[in-house]
Amino acid sequence: MAVLRPADAAEALNGLEAGLAARVLEAMPSPTAAQILDEPDLDEPAELIELLPVQAAAAILTGLQPDRRADIFRELSEPTRRALLPRLDAEIRQGLAELLSYPPRSAGGLMTTDFVSVPADWTVAQTLEHIHSVGRGKENVYTICLLDPKTKRLVKVVGLWRLVTGDPKATVSTAAWPYDPISVPPLTDQEEVARLLSKYKLLAVPVVTEHGHLLGIVTVDDVIHAIIEEGTEDVQKLGGSEALDEPYLKIDFLTLIRKRAGWLCILFLSEMLTASAMQFYQAELEKAIVLTLFIPLIMSSGGNSGSQATSLVIRSLALREIGLKDWWRIAARELPAGLVLGALLGVIGVVRIGVWQQLGLFDYGAYWPLVALTVGLALTAIVTFGSVAGSMLPFILKRLGFDPATASAPFVATLVDVTGLVIYFSVAYAVLRGTLL
User: pLDDT tens digit string along 93-146?
Assistant: First the structure.
């Protein structure tokens, strides 16, 4: 196991039973075990720590990066925390308490306190010598924070490559870009941190207090892992279930049922409104049985258009491409888009009915042109409604303080199902009144 790369070793441990994986870690040198536990793809690291003897667990935790150590500590049971804390150095305990004081999905919760900082009046040569002496124990040496020698406030950030190519006798601040440093408060959401890293092509973002004092840095690899987790959660919500806290094959059966049953029951109760709508139009259905043939077509088309619009808007909101103030711009785009898409489907529906009638594949009755017109107009109206409703629902949920991802595709489809039936039968009554109805 020791000859494997840490990422490969973590993958190998994932394939072992938890007790055996813990014994393998215990048999390793603590620095090697710490490298493996630092891998974000290692499953259930807190469980492995719980299974280790306290002394071995403390030695491995000591060798972890500060942010990873905090992530694992969040998942440990209270008795294990109490047993481990006295065995950690005072400096580690202090840093751990600071990181645990911030929400896990904030800049403060993601940051590491293991970084390189130097006074801004040092020379490039002094800085490189300092990096050489302390760099082995630091998680990140490719981003160096420059502090005011008197106030200790962050004044500049410089990349390692600019120091290596800079004049050794010049002050380190001359090697930095002339712009003010990009930094964030500790409570900044991880999505905003990711947006800044992407926009300015940074490898790390400093986290500072309201007075500009440096708390830590958030590195790009930590953000990537966090955003992958958040994206997975949003996809699961879009599918109409609660987000899973563990990998699918690791989660127990009862938890899997609980995560899915709630939304499934809500959607089922919502779909019962569809039955109520059909009961309301029972008399019309008895007079024109042919209308029932197109109910699945009508409902699915409206739900599909709504789900498309919802998915596009939710993703754009997540990427900060649009904000709440842009709701009217989205509505102004989705309304004509829905009309065009609905008209396209309507034409296909009319042609399909006409072809089947003329070829003798099915007899829609003497008034088949009116039936075709009903289907075409209904599809146009329902797809338009689905597009507008699906695009507006995420804005409404976000405005109310909910996660827009909870506007899942099944929820939108259910909403459009009910309203689609009302639209369908209203159009049918207007077109077929005096003939079939």
Answer: 998 999 999 998 899 999 988 889 999 999 999 999 999 888 776 667 888 999
CATH of the domain at 299: 1.10.357.20
Residue type at 276 in one-letter notation = S
Are 76 and 84 within 8 A, CB to CB? yes
Within a domain: 313: yes
Number of domains in the chain: 3
- Residue 157: in which H helix or E strand, if any? strand 154-159
- 231 inside domain: no
Same domain, 274 and 322: yes
Burial of 137 (0-12, 13-18, 19+ CB in 10 A): exposed
Residue that is written with structure tokens 């109760």 in the block: 269
Q: How far apart are CA 398 and CA 425, in angstroms?
A: 33
Answer whether 420's CB lies under 8 Å from 302's CB.
yes
Instruction: State which amino acid sits at residue 328.
Output: W
Nearest-angstrom CA–CA distance, 10 and 73? 19
> Of the candidates 287, 289, 321, 301, which has an alpha carbon nearest to the alpha carbon of residue 394?
321
| pTM reported for the whole predicted model | 0.65
In the numeric block, which tokens belong to residue 281? Answer: 């139009």
Q: CA–CA distance from 198 to each of 176, 180, 202, 299 (Å)?
A: 20, 17, 7, 40
Number of Cβ within a 10 Å radius of residue 206: 23
**297 found inside a domain:** yes
> Are 275 and 356 in a shared domain?
yes
Residues 268, 390, single domain; the answer is yes
Tokens standing for 11?
A: 């993958």
Beta carbons within 10 angstroms of residue 397's beta carbon: 18
Residue 272 is assigned to a structural domain of this protein:
yes
Range of the domain at 380: 253-432
Residue ranges in 175-324 assigned as alpha helix (H): 190-200, 220-238, 253-280, 282-287, 295-318
Does residue 350 have a pLDDT over 50? yes
